[in-house]
Design brief:
Immunoglobulin-like, single chain, mainly beta, 81 residues, 7 strands
Amino acid sequence: MSATQDAAELHVSRTEHDDGWTVAADCYPLTDDDVAVEVVGDTAIVAVDTPMLQTEFDVSLPGDGGTASLRNGMVVVEGDT
């Protein structure tokens, strides 16, 4: 992600399952150490902190809550229905 990118340019996938949902946002080439995620209600707040870029953006979730993790530059939030 460069300094000119914003949340609208991220590749975000949303998948609904029988027992829950998954939302994934591709933050490559950022590393897991560059990104922090907090889930508040039906929003994942993603904070990026690198020497060249400090920003925050919101990712809408299909439901309240969920568990956030970082996996090789991917922000993944999983929740139950």
